[in-house]
Amino acid sequence: MSDSLEQLEARLGDQRSRRGAPPLHLWHPQLSGEIDIRIAADGTWYHQGDPILREPLRNLFASILRREDDGHYYLVTPVEKWRIRVELHPLQVVDVDEQDGRLVATLNTGLRYLIGDEHPLVPEPSLDGVAVLQLPHGLSALFARGAWYRLVAMADSEQRVHSGDYTHQLGAGT
């Protein structure tokens, strides 16, 4: 696919849900092919080797991204499905804070998720157990360094973090 980013943005923007998150669980088009989009291990998105610098465009792509049972990542619309490459995790947790006894993770897309049973933390074995936040549609977000240090600072003396009734042992699985 040789579309420019502007053409992709226009096509995808026309097909996005007008309210809230797009209903990816309802969209099951046939594979359209591969598109030269790569998400590097540091969270940088690239198109044809160049970084995608426009945050709204990156966030648009992230809103239609899912990981399927085959382990691959796809940008999905009601009529198209394009495979992309992800080196480690597609998203990053850039901040974590506490609200009313619950931990809230902020992603590099601006979306916020309550850490808990619905969105648990799991260790990333390749990074000495640094946590990864499980997200909808088979996605995950690796903690950026600053957010990880902040989460570690929130841990109790036994290196557990608590979010409501949910508890996660930091460093588990290492």
Write a structural description:
With 174 residues, the chain is α+β, with helices and mostly antiparallel strands. It folds into two domains: 5-86, duf1285 like fold, CATH 3.10.540.10; 91-169, Roll (duf1285 protein fold). It is built from three helices and 14 strands. The chain has helices at 5-15, 55-63, 145-153; strands spanning 33-39, 45-47, 50-51, 65-67, 73-76, 81-86, 91-99, 102-107, 112-114, 121-124, 130-134, 140-143, 160-163, 166-169. The strands form three sheets. A six-stranded mixed β-sheet has the order 3-2-1-6-5-4. Strands 9-8-7-12-11-10 form a six-stranded mixed β-sheet. Strands 13-14 form a two-stranded antiparallel sheet. A hairpin with a 5-residue loop joins β11 and β12 (140-143).
Key structural traits:
single chain, 174 residues, alpha+beta, duf1285 like fold, duf1285 protein fold, 2 domains, 6-stranded mixed beta sheet, 14 strands, 17% helix, 37% strand, DUF1285_N, DUF1285_C, DUF1285 domain-containing protein
Strand content: 35-45%
Uncertain ranges: 13-19
Q: What is the annotated CATH architecture of the largest domain?
A: Roll
User: In CATH, what is the class of the largest domain?
Assistant: Alpha Beta
Taken together, the total number of domains comes to: 2
Query: Radius of gyration in whole Å, from Cα?
Result: 17 Å
Mean pLDDT score: 89
Largest sheet: 6 strands, mixed
Protein name: DUF1285 domain-containing protein
Domain DUF1285: 22-87, 97-161
